[in-house]
Each structure stands twice: as structure tokens, then as C-alpha cells.
Amino acid sequence: VQLQASGGGLVQAGGSLRLSCAVSGRSFSSYYMGWFRQAPGKEREFVATIISSGGGTHYADSVKGRFTISRDNVKNTVYLQMNSLKPEDTAVYYCAAGRYGTNLNRMDNYAYWGQGTEVTVSS
Question: Which 3 state secondary structure label does DSSP give 25?
């Protein structure tokens, strides 16, 4: 399974970006998917997750109401729509996939990771 994240860039505070993560390999629909981010000098943190069927999502409190995770099981792609961006959202964003975890906020429940896409929000 390989993951390729894209869509990052430079945006002003209050703006929007949509990140995409294309997944190659079989059985994409059987994986739950997550987005994590790592700001400069900080540890990687959970952002959002979506279960395999797409019927359930969960967000970090810091992004709830501003970010939306979704997936297209035909295109083998997961998205992160980011609205009302703030400078503190500046980070490298990583997508990840897993199948057998129970706490989907935890990085160790994800077996596969993409290379990251950089998001910079200017004030």
C-alpha cells in the first residue's frame, strides 16, 4: 500500500485548502484513514480520521468545525477540506492508513504513511 499526499501550499489566514491522499494497492475500502500533522519543533499530532465505510469520522478539538475528512472508495482517495485556516494550522500534513487498530487517534494504529504535504498559513 502506498500513499501520496498533495494539495498543500501557502494560504492566508481565513482561507481554505483541500488536501488529497491517493492510495494505491488493493482493498482501500477496508482501511480506515487518518490525517496527522507536524508543526516545526513539535510532535506529530492527530487531526482527523474516517472509518472504512466513510460513515464515521472523528476530529481533534483544534480543528473541529473547520476541517472535514471524506473519502471516495471508487477513486481510492481520502480528502481533508480545511476552512477558516489559522497560522497555528501551519504544519506538514500526513495521511495514513490502517486496518486493525482500536484507538484511531493514535499513530501506532496506522501501518502505512504518505510522505507529507506542507501547509503554511500566513497571518
Answer: coil
